[in-house]
Specification:
The protein has 337 residues and is an alpha+beta fold. The strands form four sheets. A seven-stranded antiparallel sheet has the order 12-18-17-16-15-14-13. The radius of gyration is 22 Å and the shape is elongated.
């Protein structure tokens, strides 16, 4: 079950051009392309004639032509011409989706077009803020998006899954605080006087104990911002710190696959290309470790789809997120009925 009246990241800006391409979102096939003036377009990728994918066709100005028998659609999805039919077609076409291009990503509104609300895009301005820099990419995971969201809401797994990068051995010793604010959930953990994780030890040049703050923000339906600040525990006044945000958009491709858009940005050593490469590659490796365990986890969930997992104290953020999503999805269903 998905929250429909919401924005989902469909693509990086750089992926969308004058060559139509297909991407599934929430089990639906969409075709993306750009109009001649550069505006992005997202339509159902299924011709209303015999259901051929429009992405296998071509563009004619701002319109898209089905490559099977030539039905032509405008950027709104309306069918505007049919070969051999003189009259302009009326009331046939494919669904068009509201789209916003922001911060280098193409955001698609998957629900009722009358309910479009730009303020529901999470604050990911760091993606293009000149005070921050970084790099990211897309992963395709063979798992439900929820399992990925939940992976990011309980970072105790770093101790076990990310031994060479993000591991903070003391993580399980520090309690969480959970706050719900205006339909977002904030999970916080402050770890004082710990050994820096391998990634942060290098990024911040820490050999001494550090104070490591995790501040994780979940914004429905599928956004996680991991805000991490690491400072020298003894000399926090010296302002020796490493401040990093990992911005994650977990777009359901199908109920058992996810397109995972991520970008790791930092606000220090802005001109240091080696630092960008180091952090990107370290995080990419860590996410490949997540992918391995999550895909195996999905296979086991498939064997007991209705079973209830056993909770532990570090799951508090996950449980709160589950309640919030349940509330939002059921209120959306009520509004539809
Ligand atoms: S299937 Fe598209 S025109 Fe026939
Ligand atoms: Fe992880």
């Amino acid at each position: 079950m998905y929250l429909n009246n919401a924005w989902y990241v469909g693509a990086w800006s750089s992926e969308v051009n004058r060559k139509p391409f297909q991407r599934f979102m929430l089990d639906k096939p969409l075709v993306f392309y750009r109009k001649e003036n550069g505006e992005p377009v997202a339509l159902d990728d299924r011709c209303c004639h015999r259901f051929a994918p429009l992405s296998a066709g071509w563009l004619d100005g701002d319109n898209i032509v089905c490559g099977y028998h030539g039905f032509t659609y405008s950027p709104s999805g309306a069918c505007v011409s049919i070969p051999g039919v003189e009259k302009k077609p009326k009331k046939i076409g494919v669904m068009g989706y509201p789209v916003i291009e922001k911060w280098g990503w193409i955001w698609v509104w998957m629900g009722n077009a009358e309910a479009v609300d730009e303020t529901k895009i999470p604050d990911f301005h760091y993606l293009q803020d000149p005070a921050w820099t970084g790099h990211g990419e897309t992963l395709n995971l063979k798992s439900n998006y929820d399992l990925v969201v939940e992976n990011l809401l309980d970072l105790t797994h770093a101790k076990y899954v990310h031994k060479t990068t993000l591991a903070t051995n003391d993580v399980t010793e520090f309690p969480l605080t959970i706050t719900e604010q205006e339909d977002t959930i904030i999970v916080e953990r402050m770890m004082r006087g710990i050994k820096a994780s391998p990634l942060f030890a290098h990024a911040g040049n820490f050999t001494e104990p550090v104070d490591h703050r995790q501040h994780i923000v979940f914004t429905p339906p599928c956004y996680i911002s991991i805000n991490t600040t690491v400072v020298s525990a003894a000399n926090s006044m010296e302002n020796k710190s490493a401040d990093i945000r990992i911005l994650n958009a977990l777009t359901p491709e199908t109920s058992t696959t996810t397109n995972y858009f991520w970008n790791l940005v930092r606000c220090f050593a802005l001109d240091d290309e080696d630092m960008t490469k180091f952090l990107y590659e370290g995080n990419k490796f860590a996410f490949s470790e997540d992918q391995e365990i999550i895909e195996k986890q999905q296979q086991m969930w498939n064997t007991v789809p209705n079973a209830k997992p056993v909770p532990f104290p570090h799951d508090k953020g996950i449980i709160q997120k589950g309640k919030l999503m349940e509330r939002l999805i059921s209120s959306e269903k009520c509004n539809y009925n």
